[in-house]
Task: inverse folding
């Protein structure tokens, strides 16, 4: 895992941040953060709804305006091939506590794929990484690392690493850009 603070020059970061945090930006409701069938809770894993914005998926640009605004970020990451770009918005959730998180998952099983998480705002909705690989019961995953979102921070890791987001407890919202690429 590699962490880059102040990843973009402030002017480029401000353009992206202002775009995604604008009250006119279009978000879409997703009933479950990661599961196809929502499950309320298993151990420290809590399923929560989130708002999403698909920028790039199925080998096509789904949101041209946002894609163009994200080009400085995409260019700086320099992917050989994009797999998916998705923006996530999570709101404050009183059911969460400091050690609860979403359900552990991988973003893609593509060989050699990487995930880049770009934090758009400061928040207390940590990202968690786990010691175990995919396939064990959700309540048996143990946390290997956690990271608090910091505006303009980029975290890059193998897409095959089990990880999970969480909703903020104190902050009003958590906004991230998730980029999967080769």
Result:
């Amino acid at each position: 895992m590699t962490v880059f603070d102040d990843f973009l020059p402030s002017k480029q970061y401000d353009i992206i941040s202002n775009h995604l945090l604008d009250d006119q930006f279009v978000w879409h409701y997703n009933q479950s953060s990661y599961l196809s069938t929502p499950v309320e809770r298993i151990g420290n894993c809590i399923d929560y709804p989130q708002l999403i914005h698909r920028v790039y998926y199925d080998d096509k640009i789904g949101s041209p305006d946002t894609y163009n605004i994200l080009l400085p970020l995409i260019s700086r990451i320099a992917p050989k091939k994009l797999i998916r770009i998705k923006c996530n918005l999570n709101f404050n959730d009183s059911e969460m506590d400091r050690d609860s998180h979403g359900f552990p998952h991988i973003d893609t099983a593509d060989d050699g794929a990487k995930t880049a998480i770009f934090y758009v705002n400061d928040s207390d909705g940590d990202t968690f990484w786990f010691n175990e690989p995919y396939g064990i019961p959700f309540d048996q995953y143990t946390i290997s690392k956690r990271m608090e979102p910091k505006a303009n921070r980029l975290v890059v890791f193998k897409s095959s690493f089990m990880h999970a987001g969480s909703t903020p407890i104190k902050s009003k919202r958590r906004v991230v850009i998730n980029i999967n690429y080769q």
Remarks:
- The longest strand covers residues 82-91.
